[in-house]
Amino acid sequence: MTTMEREAGAPPAAETSSKRSPKVSSSERKSQILWLVGAIVIIAYALIPVAWILSLSLKAGDDINNQRFLPSDVSLENYRIVLSSDIFLSALRNSVGIAAIATTISVVLATLAAYAIARLEFPGKKLILGVALAITVFPVISIATPLFNMWRTIGLYDTWLGLIIPYLSFSIPLSVYVLSAFFREIPWEMEQAAQVDGATAWQAFRKVIVPLAAPGVFTAAILTFFAIWNDFVFGITLTSTEAARPVPAALAFFSGASQFSQPTAPIAAASVLVTIPVIILVLLFQQKIVAGLTNGAVKG
Amino acid sequence: MSTTVPAAAGEVRDDLSVTHHGRPKLSDRARHERRLGWMLAGPAFVLMVAVTGYPVLNAVWLSLFDYRLTAPDDREFVGLSNYALILSDGLFWRQFGVTAAITVVTVAVEFVLGFALAMVMHRALFLRRTLRTAILIPYGIITVVSAYAWQYAFASASGFVNPLLGLGGYNWFGDTVPSLVVICLSEIWKTTPFLSLLLLAGLAQIPEDYLEAAKVDGATAWQRFRRVIMPNMKAAIMVALLFRTLDAFRIFDNVFIMTQGAQGTETLSFLAYRQTISRVQIGLGSAVSVILAILVVLIAVMFVKGFKTNLSQQKG
């Protein structure tokens, strides 16, 4: 279990760095200062736009157009507007509900498929991986426009199910790649060892394999959630009302408190609110996300 | 290794078939393994194919009709004339140009920037965790949010960029090129981290001895990069560039939020959206979707072919 966790969690470069770190020469120390500067620049690069949207969300009234990075006066007015807006709240409900359902189903189906691909010999394995790859590179809009027409005919237009179905088919390929790369590294002999010790096949699977596989499945779930949470194309093409419209699509059609006020600052506040789950997941599971992204793409 | 799996699928029938037909046990196991394989992978496969395969075929079919959603009774088979109409339209080629320009510029900048990011992440011993956490935020953030952040930063009313650059009341969204610059900036900011993580995985696979040996032989940093790092990362570079190119080519969210396609910033994905959803020209919109899909497949094929020939040249 511990070796698996390390393998899954460790960033790819961790090995080389631990080799280097014990004795650091003076020239190495000098270049480390340069790398440190680089690291600080990159952190600033990543965080400044986020800080900007946060700062903008705290501006109220004319302060929005103060043309400065920081607000002259911190106000939570925009959050009050957004959190009392039915459009935003229903969009949030839709996004959370749809993402939760679609992520769960997607990861369960992808786990079964990835297990088969990593562990079993059967014809068509290459076909499945090929189809999965084709879907990940396919232009989403080319699917969304025919679905728009089909969903209207069969009544799935502007429903949760109408979004969940395409989300599944577009998120499963990613999870299959991430998970089959992960499953290939699991020490499956342990399953046999458990059976030799008298466990049934199901017990061996349940008590030995599930704990080993859980970190990988969890990583796939986070990446799937990000993909679905981020979707915009399906969100605007397959919905028309608050019944199913998810957050990114609702943001695009968001207007201010009244018809005449500029929606800039409320949009910024809504943006901050929907970024919070992303930041929490990144803070908690940074290593898993990095490992999942790199394993799936390079080894799979 | 695989012995345990067929047992889970159905032990009893396994035994029966052995005694009745006297088949060797291994082939029987293999047969069960095949069945179990498809039982497990089947649902995912069916879902992937049904939800993408059928709409694609449906789009191909509909693209052969003159079909407006508001006038379904006037639906009429027109053969390939939707394609002829699109391909002979100057506007389509303009949008193709815009899409291609965005793709080339963003992928080129992201590749250079992503490599720098990957190098820093690979080498820096301090702030490792913070660095990785920070760059995952642009990766995870909603593209629409990124688009708003960059748009508001450059907007002449609310933005801080103009005063910073001393540009006064300059309107970034009043003309094609400046609008595209801001669109590309948002796209680059959001997607470079993904590319850099793929490159980082490639970097980590280069044996440290290679670089040490090159150093001992007196290779400069640039030579080490060109002659040791780059050739040893071919696979990672190809994967990263291919994924990002195909992703950039379908750019939609940033354009939709920042300009709604105004000022000549419309891309091919946006054209497909506008024809189908806004103008409900299902026939024409489907034809645009099909053309876009064909272009993406062509790019993928070109990529794979191009990198293969390069690889063989390297060896020879």
Automatic annotation (TrEMBL), chain A:
The chain crosses the membrane at residues 33-54, 96-115, 127-148, 160-183, 208-229, 265-285. GO terms for cellular component: plasma membrane. One of its GO terms (biological process) is transmembrane transport. Coiled coil: none annotated. InterPro entries: BP-dep_ABC_trans_perm, MetI-like, MetI-like_sf. It is a multi-pass membrane protein. Its main location: membrane. Belongs to the binding-protein-dependent transport system permease family. This is Multiple sugar transport system permease protein. It comes from Kineococcus xinjiangensis.
From TrEMBL, chain B:
GO terms for cellular component: plasma membrane. GO terms for biological process: transmembrane transport. It comes from the Bacteria. Keywords: Cell membrane, Membrane, Sugar transport, Transmembrane, Transmembrane helix, Transport. Pfam families: BPD_transp_1. InterPro entries: MetI-like, MetI-like_sf. The chain crosses the membrane at residues 36-57, 96-121, 133-150, 170-189, 282-304. It is a multi-pass membrane protein. Residues 96-303 form the ABC transmembrane type-1 domain. Gene3D superfamilies: MetI-like. It is found in: Cell membrane. Belongs to the binding-protein-dependent transport system permease family. PANTHER family: BLR7065 PROTEIN (PTHR43005), SPERMIDINE_PUTRESCINE TRANSPORT SYSTEM PERMEASE PROTEIN (PTHR43005:SF1). This is Multiple sugar transport system permease protein. It comes from Kineococcus xinjiangensis. The lineage of its organism: Bacteria, Bacillati, Actinomycetota, Actinomycetes, Kineosporiales.
